[in-house]
Amino acid sequence: MGDDAPSLSAVKSKRSWAILLVVLMLGLVADLWSKDFAFKHVGEHPVHVNREDVMHTSNPRALIPADKPVVVIPNVLNFTLVLNRGAVFGMGAGKRWLFIAFTAGAIVLGLWMFAAWTTRKDWLAHISLGLLLSGGLGNLYDRLVYACVRDFIHPLPGVEIRNWEVWPYVSNVADALLIIGIIGLMWHLWRSEPAKPTKAKTA
């Protein structure tokens, strides 16, 4: 069976590996570069994150100068610097090693899904897994190096419905990659749903 066979396992397909690794590397570079750029240029002065400072404070956000957010598009997008010990959107702050273990497990699961669950023709799943892996690795890198995650993207700032802020969370490119990857996998699963067998008509 050649590499061009649609039913070939992804782990044996050069094209499938190429898609996964290219998407993974592009996503990882985009995430880490954007974080570095934001923390150098969004504030009035560059912000250097020190792991020891983060480890010895109860409030990592206090390590960030209280600069005004950079308004990219009013009420649509702001850039504001935040150090986050939690998971996506700051949930579960203070459980760093739990999130490190969970993220590492999710990365292993993603690679297993690629190898055992997809074939050469499942390019959407390969792109989605590449996005998920790059997002997971980007935030895992931050947790290991800085003991927190660097966030700077704030969508819909100040937008409220009945005095309730629509989107209070500050995130990063890795979070966006994770969300897009999950949506892509769900779409792939929906498209791959086997057709329900129809009952044979009786005379």
Can you walk through the features of this model?
With 203 residues, this protein is mainly alpha-helical. Helices cover 48% and strands 11% of the residues. It has five helices and five strands; from the N terminus they run ααββααβββα. It has helices at residues 14-41, 51-55, 96-117, 123-146, 173-191, and strands spanning 70-73, 77-84, 149-155, 160-161, 164-165. The strands form two sheets. It has a three-stranded antiparallel β-sheet with strand order 1-2-3. It starts with 13 loop residues before the first helix and ends in a 12-residue tail after the last helix. The mean pLDDT is 87.
Compact summary:
By secondary structure, the chain is mainly α. It has helices at residues 14-41, 51-55, 96-117, 123-146, 173-191, and strands at 70-73, 77-84, 149-155, 160-161, 164-165.
Descriptive key words:
three-stranded antiparallel β-sheet; two-stranded antiparallel sheet; mainly alpha
Mean pLDDT reading: 87
Work out the count of structural domains. 1
Integer-rounded radius of gyration: 21 Å
Order of helices and strands: HHEEHHEEEH
Report the strand count.
5
Structural class: mainly alpha
Distance between the termini: 43 Å
The fraction of residues assigned to DSSP E strands is 5-15%
Shape: globular
Oligomer: single chain
Question: What is the fold's blueprint, element by element?
Answer:
Layout: H1 14-41, H2 51-55, E1 70-73, E2 77-84, H3 96-117, H4 123-146, E3 149-155, E4 160-161, E5 164-165, H5 173-191
Antiparallel strand pairs: 1-2, 2-3, 4-5
Helix pairs in contact: 1-4, 3-4, 4-5
